[in-house]
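Write out structure tokens for MYND-type domain-containing protein.
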Amino acid sequence: MMSCLPVDRESETGEVCANCGRHGSDTVKLKNCTACRLVKYCGVDCQRAHRKQHKKACKQRAAELKDEQLYSQGLEVRSAPGRLPHPERDIIMKICGACERQLPDDAFSVEQRGLRQRIRRCIACVAAGNELVLMKRGTTRDEDDVCSVCQLPLPIPMEESLLQPCCMKRVCNGCILYGRKCGMCNCPFCRTDVPTKESQVLAMVQKRVAVGDPVAICFLGAHHERGTYGLEKDTKRTDELCQQAAQLGVKEAHFILGNLHGCGEGGSIRHYEEAAMCGHLLSRFNLGVWEYNGGRGHLALQHFLISAKLGHTASLDAVKRLLAEGIATEADYAGALQGYEAAIGEMSSPSRDEAKAMGIEKLVRYNTGPRRPGY
């Protein structure tokens, strides 16, 4: 086993899985441990296998990050009983959202000091025009955003795809419709029989949860919030399950937690930021709305441009509104429109168009299955 050493974020060639040692490449996508960001993994199996060895270091670093977050908000961090004073706690330290260095308070302008960590830049980064990390990550859709059957980018509206409870793979409506036309009445991905009752759906999900499937854990948490599939409505349980799924790298879990915690610069914005940096479009849009309402139109524009170019219609409309208000330029809108049209084209197929024209209710009846599970 490898030790829990920090991963060099700037070096692509030096990135390795902390469990198996595989190097990151075009085919091997490594993801950070979202709790501590000390190590990376090539998949959930390696993350679970390495958990026992990594747990202590992970918790320690997560606690340090929490302290740093409090510092970044200008809050005092008091030592817990029996905890030795930290030499850096005598000085207010802030983290730059561009270079990600922890710097003394005087390394930031008065204006920047009042901003939260992810959108704050030190004097040197402002002078150099360095971009915020928040705006550099999550600008493309990853492998979680493609249909497990046709491998095309998934449509953005959740009702245009189906999360299969048997294997926790998301399949677009076009592939489901095509399969039914070919006489397939089972899962298009794993060929498991389609459940006919909600209790069967829940049993399948709980079976996946029992083996540590992060997507299933998130699914269960989402439906505890709604009280659906026979589950008791329990937001505390939702929080517990989605926190667990978020630590395992499920961006949808961060989005659910952001919605659960309500508006504010505490938990909700932090979770939206984590999800947005993983390519979650609705979280990116929510951040844009938050910045716009906070009077930071230039930051709102950056968020909307990213999500619009990935095919998010409401974000494109927001860029158009900012153009009318003089915040965006004609070039900004033209670039957003070009990216939007390209993304929509990539998400389109004859089968998807037919399924969309059929309508969700008719498709569900055609599917002959239960109420469609999903987030």
